[in-house]
Design goal:
The structure is a homodimer of 220-residue chains. The first copy, chain A, has 220 residues and is α+β, with helices and mostly antiparallel strands. The first copy, chain A, folds into two domains: 3-140, Nucleoside Triphosphate Pyrophosphohydrolase (Alpha-Beta Complex); 151-216, Arc Repressor Mutant, subunit A (Orthogonal Bundle), CATH 1.10.10. In chain A, 38% of the residues lie in helices and 23% in strands. Chain A is built from nine helices and nine strands. The first copy, chain A, has helices at residues 43-54, 60-67, 82-85, 102-105, 127-146, 149-153, 160-171, 177-187, 210-216; strands at 3-13, 16-23, 30-31, 34-36, 74-81, 92-99, 111-114, 190-192, 203-205. In chain A, the strands form two sheets. In chain A, strands 1, 2, 3, 4, 5, 6 and 7 form a seven-stranded mixed beta sheet that branches. Chain A has a two-stranded antiparallel ribbon with strand order 8-9. Chain A is globular, with a radius of gyration of 18 Å. The N and C termini of chain A lie far apart (44 Å). The A-B interface holds A 1, 3, 37-39, 41-44, 76-81, 83-84, 90, 92, 94, 96, 138, 142, 146, 214 and B 1, 3, 37-39, 41-44, 76-81, 83-84, 90, 92, 94, 96, 138, 142, 146, 214. Chains A, B: InterPro entries: WH-like_DNA-bd_sf.
Chain lengths: 220, 220
């Protein structure tokens, strides 16, 4: 029985959510990067292999650093019987989503497309990938609220404004700057990059405090 | 490559959340019902087969009715490389959760155990099943809020009080009766079972309105 892994790479590029698609050579349709899992290539290895292929333009040490860090997290979207979707495909499709950080997304092999446009009439996204993407986008608001998803998308160092604009875009909500600032202060999940008397402009996420997001949420 | 499906059957029994475990004959540990997926037994068929085995005591027509209804929904928990968890198991484990309705849960083959107690020191739940259950329970509050999960657990016909107590138990919150009543009225997701001048005591969920829960939430 064949088990395929599909990965939906997500990036935040110029204030819109983008997903990376590649062209399926047999059908000329756009699909998400995938790999057939094998006896010696399980989920973890398959995910790593897809990412190493996509990001072969990124310096090796930077890529490995990210892959082994808390910032590199893939999340389950769902699992599908592909024979129920399309008669010709006999496999189980495991679909996972992964946020690519801002410093890598421009190096990725493939085409970044605006997620919303992929549902338009003239989109050439394959029908199964369309289904995978729809379910993935449904879950984005929950990921933004209760996981580190937003911080996985941001570059490692960011300003509060970067963060606020990204949260607003991902959750399709207007985020009030004052309330957001107070909430961040209360959650205490950011580390300043300078200290002392200087005014702080750049921050890092405190990855060891990820549980705070699961319990309290990044936004109400 | 082997792909296994694990199903976590969930029921609400006398005000606590229970999960169904079976005994693994080789290790004497408790595990969740599972099945090896095969070329001719994909996800959908595997889920059905586990359920038909577990619920063989339920009248055939009732069981098939439920299996083919909107009330029977299984949800992904996650997918795991079992070789990363335990050296001796070389497989990919797809873990899904399913709510068994109140009228069936007492007929299920296996032992219903209080979900929280399965983490106690003297629990004999297998380590991998323990991990699966922890992730599943993490997701229950989200399922209660934004999916039909609560209505899948209830019997088909219920009182508002049944619903309120169940939502309170599942979300570990005190649900105010007046606010809950007003919210249900606004969401307009229930169908009364009697009409006219009589006071309504019994309700059904309007399954065609499931989208309302995804958008607005059953609780704030």
């Amino acid at each position: 029985m064949k088990t395929e892994l599909f990965l939906i790479p997500i990036a935040a590029v110029s204030d819109s959510l983008r997903v990376l698609v590649t062209k399926d050579p047999t059908s000329d349709r756009q699909t998400f990067p995938s790999i057939m899992l094998k006896q010696d290539l399980h989920l973890h290895g398959g995910t790593r292999q897809i990412l190493r292929d996509l990001l072969s333009g990124v310096p090796f040490a930077d890529l490995e650093n990210w892959l082994n860090s808390a910032r590199c997290k893939d999340r389950i979207v769902d699992v599908y019987d592909r024979d129920l979707l399309f008669e010709q495909s006999q496999s189980i499709a495991i679909v996972r989503a992964i946020a690519l950080p801002q410093e890598f997304s421009s190096h990725a092999k493939g085409v970044w497309l605006d997620a919303e446009n992929l549902f338009s009439q003239d989109s050439i996204l394959a029908p199964d990938s369309r289904l995978f993407l729809r379910e993935c986008l449904n879950q984005v608001p929950l990921w933004v609220k209760n996981t580190t998803f937003t911080f996985e998308l941001l570059s490692q160092v960011f300003s509060i404004q970067d963060l606020r604009l990204l949260v607003g875009m991902l959750s399709s909500q207007e985020i009030d700057p004052g309330n957001f600032h107070r909430r961040l202060k209360r959650l205490d999940i950011l580390r300043p990059l300078v200290s002392g008397q200087q005014r702080v402009h750049k921050w890092e996420f405190a990855w060891e405090k990820s549980d705070v997001l699961a319990a309290d949420g990044l936004i109400p």
